[in-house]
Amino acid sequence: MRTIDIHSHSVPHGWPELGEGLPALRIDSEREAMIMLGDREFRRIDARCWDAELRLADMDRDGVARQVVSPTPVFFSYEETGVVAARVARIFNDRALELAASGGGRLIPFCQVPLQDTDLACAELERAVACGHRGVEIGNHIGDRDLDDAGIVTFLQHCAELDVPVFVHPWDMRPSVRNSRWMAQWLTGMPEETHLSLVAMILGGVFDRVSEELRICFAHGGGSFPHWLGRFENAWHRRGDLIATSEHPPSHYLDRFSVDSVVFTPQALRLLVDTLGHTQVMVGSDYPYPLGERPVGAVVERSDFLTREQLDAILFENARRFLDLPGT
Questions:
Q1: 76: Cβ–Cβ under 8 A, 6 or more apart, which residues?
Q2: Which of 124, 200, 131 has the alpha carbon at shortest distance from 168?
Q3: Is 296 left (phi over 0), alpha (psi -120 to 50) or beta?
Q4: Is 179 exposed, middle or buried (0-12, 13-18, 19+ CB in 10 A)?
Q5: Buried-state track 123-148, b at ≥16 Cβ within 10 A, e below 16
Q6: Which residue has the higher pLDDT, 30 or 265?
Q7: Torsions phi, psi of 145, nearest 5?
Q8: Domain Amidohydrolase-related, which positions (predicted)?
Q9: Which helix (H) or strand (E) holds 6?
């Protein structure tokens, strides 16, 4: 078992009632619960979200040596004040450490922070890392503020200075009449959100301003970005009067970020490898949610175009470097 899963989520079973407007957990049985947003049912979850023993059993079945465990994004609370979100983050992060402690060293906790308040976000990052978190998961935007927002850039630079890896997850896909059918917010909105934020990282000059030491990974294969890099590159050169706001064309920055492998087919994985390079792709699963991949790493293993070196890189070597883990 060598595979490292860079993308999974948790929800603490003992989540407290924190007040109106904040996510709550309705316990329906010992093995099932419902995430509630006020009176609205958001998502049904099961014991794999909080039970380390169940996680480890699934990891054993899938040949996963270690798994990064990040928050479920609905708990970010970015729409609240920074003080409220900091309280939520502190509780979530402490409970996540309890889950990781039950994992025998195989569960790697990533914290959340009140990203809407830069000072509070930096403070909670420092506290969480000091307590045992190995990285941080952030949402890809805060309302209309994308990743090139000055406060978020300051936070990303702080992550680079602390040598803390960042995992960016799309969230808060705003509903409309057209995207409220067929889970379209997840099927089309999530890829679009990640694509837009990568565009903001490049054209907003984030990669030009933030230290090259920043380790940052984008979920779901970078969304639709890899597919449309050619269009992006063409526009940068042909309409530089409007979008050539970065120091270099988009293709220059491809080694500045990683993506996970949650793309479900070898054909899609080939696009990632051809576009970004095999050193920029890491196994992810989105465990334990229904739109995730099981068995973990199956698409990578089925991709017969990969050499043994490339397989090893995607299955564990890239993640080992991203997480700063000792060699195996």
A1: 85, 112, 115, 138, 139, 171
A2: 200
A3: beta
A4: middle
A5: ebbebbbeeebbbbbbbbbbeeebbb
A6: 265
A7: -90, 115
A8: 4-325
A9: none
SS3 79: coil
Look-up: residue for tokens 């979100």?
A: 85
User: Residue 90's closest CA among 106, 71, 108?
Assistant: 71
Please state which CATH number belongs to domain 3-323.
3.20.20.140
Answer whether residue 328 shows pLDDT above 80.
no
Eight-class DSSP state of 80: S
Could you report the per-residue pLDDT of 161-194, keeping only the tens digit for each? 999 999 999 988 788 888 888 878 878 878 899 9
Rounded distance, CA 18 to CA 125, Å? 21
* CB neighbour list of residue 315: distance below 8 Å, 6 or more residues apart: 2, 3, 4, 283, 297, 300, 301
Instruction: Answer whether 0.90 is exceeded by the pTM.
Output: yes
Beta bridge partners of 108: 68
Rounded distance, CA 129 to CA 195, Å? 29
What is the per-residue DSSP string for 159-207? HHHHT--EEEE-------TTTSSTTHIIIIIHHHHHHHHHHHHHHTTHH
CB-CB contact of 207 with 179 (8 Å): no
Closest residue by Cα to residue 214 from 252, 255, 245: 255
Residues 263, 99: Cα–Cα separation, whole Å: 27
Please enumerate, as own/partner, the contacts of 128-132 that have beta carbons within 8 Å and a separation of 24 or more: 128/89, 128/93, 129/162, 129/164, 131/93, 131/94, 131/97, 132/97, 132/100
If residue 40 lies in a helix (H) or strand (E), which one and from where to where?
strand 40-46
- φ, ψ dihedrals at 168, nearest 5°: -100, 125
Task: Taking the CA atoms of 29, 33, 34 and 36 in sequence, report the sign of the dihedral they define.
Answer: positive
DSSP three-state, residue 272 = helix
